[in-house]
Amino acid sequence: MTQTPPTVADLLAHPVRFGLTLLAGPGAGRPIEKVTAVSTLPGVVHAAEGSLVVILEPPGSALTGYEADVAIRHAADRGLVALVLTGPVRLPVTSQHLAKRAQVPVLGSETAQDGAELLLRIDRYARGGASDALARAAAAIEAAQNAADAASDDPVAAVLAAAGDALGCTVDLLEYAPTAPNSPGAVVIGDQAVAEVVAGTHDEAAHVALPAVAAVVSRVRQNELNRRFAATMTRAELIVQIALAERAQLPQLSAQAQRAGLPVQQTHVVAWVRVEAAEGAPAGLFQQRQLLAALELAALQALDGRPGMWHVASFSGDLIVVFTDPVAGAHLYGRVRQEMQALLATLAERGDALVTVGMGTPQAGPDGIRQSAAEARVAADSAAVRGRRGTIADTDASGLRRILADLYSSPLSRGLLAELLAPLDALGPERSWIGVVTLSAFLDSQGSPTKTGRALHLHANAVSYRLRWITEALDADLDDPDVRFALQMACRVRLLGA
Fold it and tell me: Do 107 and 145 belong together in one domain?
């Protein structure tokens, strides 16, 4: 397809790329058929018709009206498209009037430019094609990088504006994850595409520049998030350590938390967020990691600015949300639950995750973080086991889950209960897991193979077969109430830890 030759108006529309302003004459003019250069103003007399003439040696501030008038008259007589002065100059008033009458545009530069370089840029632009596309793309990338490095209240907007000026089109940021995460304009934070840079034109220059501009925006966004959430994320890492630590480690971790600005002696409410890929979504390890990172960022942004101190951390494929408040009270639980309900709705809108939230009760001090986290985890796991995924599960009023949580948080209790299941562990990881799951379901079903089979999607005969080798391995009498109770607690704590 034949490209329409540009005009003076097109040059003026790219101030970042050419740095030209209109000194006198019309701002449009005829199409530029040729770009040529002369060393001085009098050399204009030798330029061919239809040319835009670049004066390589910029005149000084003492430009005389006579020189300018003669050059403009020659330009009009020879049918030149425009004259370009390569330095900042004040055109005499008489020359301005003459250029207007002769319909000869006179362009000047706001700053002194290399005449040869300016000539090359204009010539590439006038010729079009691959060389112009590459030049515009290079100019857009350089402008975006410079805008990112400059101090600005809104660096992303500055990057987009600079790139758009260089490309000659609008460049916008669409605040959604692109359908194709590997699209040229994808803005990636960590491993997750969160937005997309798009250009208002589909020419080659935009196609070449978009990936680099998107990379600059990604870097700016990542830096903004690092500055915004660095302290919060550091404290969140300590919260995870406190939630999983032995009691003997709490004094040291509490001291670190205090130095990091986390008031561990206050009251905490923990919500445990189980994250699963939505039905039909990719469920590989890499995709799961990407999903968890995206949800962690979404949760941080959703809770940022909410009243109180909020922290979000990831652990073993799940998220831990902690609210800290100096005032203890029953209202804390309801307040946090309300915020988690809103967060659950926000995360569900994404459509790529199934999120189940377990709520812990308000607890004070570093040991309270451990207790509330254990309660929240038990509640989330219980909801998942009972088929209540995608909901908020409260800590039960009976206190059983809290008892399980306390047992799980105690190394001594875990050790004693693990001894009961040691014979199954001796059979190997896979057989041990089958045994624990089957025994737990059997005891929860009050010793009914039929109900156990329905829970595990097995035939009752298969359940009976499993129970024979399980009881033989454990050498346990399941008719003894104490034995049943101890094994049921051991199985539940084992499944909780899993």
Answer: no
- Mean pLDDT along residues 418-442: 88
- pLDDT(487) > 50: yes
Rounded (5°) CA angle 181-187-192: 55
Based on the fold, state whether residues 100 and 13 are members of the same structural domain: yes
Pairing of strands 106-109, 51-55: unpaired
Is residue 396 domain-shared with residue 474, that is, in the same domain? Answer: no
β-pair partners for 35 = 52
Q: Cα 71 to the chain's mean position, in Å?
A: 57
Percentage above 70 pLDDT, the chain: 89
Domain count, the chain: 4
Torsion over CA: 85, 87, 91, 96 (sign): positive
| Residues 313 and 396 grouped into a single domain | yes
Tokens 């700016």, located at residue: 220
Two tokens at 439? Answer: 């025994």
- For residue 252, tell me if it sits in a domain: no
With CA atoms as reference, report the closest residue to 301 among 233, 366, 198, 229: 229
What does the block give as tokens for 210? 């978009």
Question: What is the Cα Rg of the chain in Å?
Answer: 36
233 within some domain:
no
Q: How many CA atoms lie within 13 A of 166 on its CB side?
A: 29
Q: In terms of domains, do 356 and 493 share one?
A: no
Residues 435 and 450 in one domain: yes
> Each residue of 340-391: pLDDT tens digit?
998 888 888 877 788 889 998 888 888 888 888 888 888 887 777 677 888 8
For 321-459, where are the alpha helices, taking DSSP H only? 331-348, 365-385, 400-409, 411-420, 422-425, 429-444, 449-456
The answer to the question of residue 258 being in a domain is: no
CA gap 360, 240 in Å, rounded: 15
Coil, strand, or helix at residue 453? helix
Confidence of residue 2 (pLDDT cuts 50, 70, 90): very low
User: Alpha-carbon dihedral of residues 190, 192, 197, 203, nearest 10 degrees?
Assistant: 100
For the record, the structure tokens of 453 come out as 């089979």
- pTM for the model stands at 0.48
Domain assignment present for 207: yes
**Residue 111 structural domain:** 8-127
